[in-house]
Amino acid sequence: MRSKNYQADYAEEPSPWTRPGFVLAAVLLLVIVALGVVVAVQSGDDDKPDSVAPTASAESAAPQPEPTGKLSTAVPVTAPAGVTWQVVRGTALPFSDRAGPREHSDKQAKGFARTPEGALIAAAQLVSRVGAAAGRASWEPTLTQQFLPGADRDTLQAALAAEPEQQAQPGDLAPLAGYLYLTYTPDTAVIGLAYRSVNGATARWFIVTTTLQWRDGDWKMVAPPGGAWTSLSRTVTDLNGVVEWGAR
Questions:
Q1: Is 134 within 8 Å of 89 (Cβ atoms)?
Q2: Is the pLDDT of residue 215 over 70?
Q3: What is the rounded distance in angstroms from the CA atom of residue 154 to the CA atom of residue 217?
Q4: Are 168 and 90 in contact (CB under 8 A)?
Q5: Neighbours of 18 (CB within 10 A)
């Protein structure tokens, strides 16, 4: 007699592909594969740089020199605007938020703009600060750090060192009265500085020709021939051709 389980024992086995356990496993496998694809895509995106605006660093925030072709070469034919005057070691000196100096004390002034106005203010500052009347605390760092090296600079330094220590008082020194540009490029500026003589009843001025070169991110001065400013100075009886400029 056949067992009542005959049908179950001997009937054709159902296909394993249709068994519930296998179907569930297949579904789970598809889910895992799909998740793997999503993770792989996201990982690939993570390897790409984020498209966010760059953050300005301290270096990029600082003023950067422009290509020479874009630098201004138009010299001011009237007194530069936005200039204030401060008495430094007995002399009124020019300061500008736009043209410099960016760093200054009673000993030194640095950081001038690479523009005609920047060169002009640098000339006025450096000539005054390197004088014997400014005192050694001023002329020595100015000369050694802001004048181009050479025999003339060495001679000027020796002459200044031989002078007795002194400190000028307001009114002792010839005040700045004006300027004239002789030549100007973004690399070299030749500027005459006019000073009013404080001696004698007759009005007289003397013009000192200064030369500056753009080096290491700032204007540096060329020492006078033989270390003597008298070699670059001439006396005039009027200010024809000179733009009047000075403390008022």
A1: yes
A2: yes
A3: 23
A4: yes
A5: 8
